[in-house]
Amino acid sequence: MQNDRYSFVALFDYADDGISIVFPDLPGCYPCADKDDTDMALKNAKEALGLHIWGMEQDHEEIPVPSKITDLEIEPGQVPVLIDVFMPPIRERINSRFVKKTLSLPAWLASKADEDGVNCSRIFQNALMDYLGIRDKTKI
Q1: Which residues are CB-neighbours of 35 under 8 A, at least 6 positions away?
Q2: Would you state the torsion angle of the CA atoms of residues 129, 130, 132, 137, taken in this order, to the nearest 10 degrees?
Q3: Tens digit of each residue's pLDDT, the chain (140 residues)
Q4: What is the DSSP string of the chain?
Q5: How far apart are CA 93 and CA 85, in angstroms?
Q6: Which of 85, 67, 52, 86 is nearest to 11 (CA)?
Q7: Quick count: other Cβ atoms within 10 Å of Cβ 45?
Q8: For helices 38-58 and 87-95, what crossing angle results, to 10°?
Q9: pTM for this one?
Q10: Cα torsion for 92, 98, 103, 107, to the nearest 10°?
């Protein structure tokens, strides 16, 4: 079951070459930011957390129970920060993105479509939804 909201602790490590961020409960999620730019680090951590969880959901991986901040081993120079994400807009943004598909048309048909100002992408989308029996894109 997918949750709408997740909160995980991120460890911000401030160094001369920038801010490294690690989520101890989410191996492979390693955002970063420029040195002395905590606002960007927070933004990047939130974005990375949302994308990482979305990827885990798509792969049907179990989302771990977040560790308590008091249970983490924090090294010198690391700052624990609680990062939370609200997933519905993240899911919607990713699922609504457009992908490029190349298709072939006879030259005469492409020419006639251009001449009449036809939006081939819209026609193709509608035809594909009809073919797949999709009436409402929110039910995908």
Answers
A1: 14, 15, 16, 17, 18, 19
A2: 40
A3: 789 999 999 999 999 899 999 999 999 999 999 988 999 999 999 999 999 999 999 999 999 999 999 999 999 989 999 999 999 999 999 888 778 888 888 999 988 888 988 888 888 888 888 898 887 665 44
A4: ---SEEEEEEEEEEETTEEEEE-TTSTT---EE-TT-HHHHHHHHHHHHHHHHHHHHHTTPPPPPPPPGGGS-PPTTEEEEEEEEEHHHHHHHHHT----------HHHHHHHHHTT--HHHHHHHHHHHHHT-S-GGG-
A5: 14
A6: 67
A7: 25
A8: 70
A9: 0.73
A10: 130
Whose CA is closest to 81, among 9, 5, 4?
9
CA distance 30 to 132: 38
Q: The sheet that has 78-86: what strands, in order across it?
A: 32-33, 18-22, 5-15, 78-86
Burial grade of 12 (CB within 10 A; 0-12, 13-18, 19 or more): buried
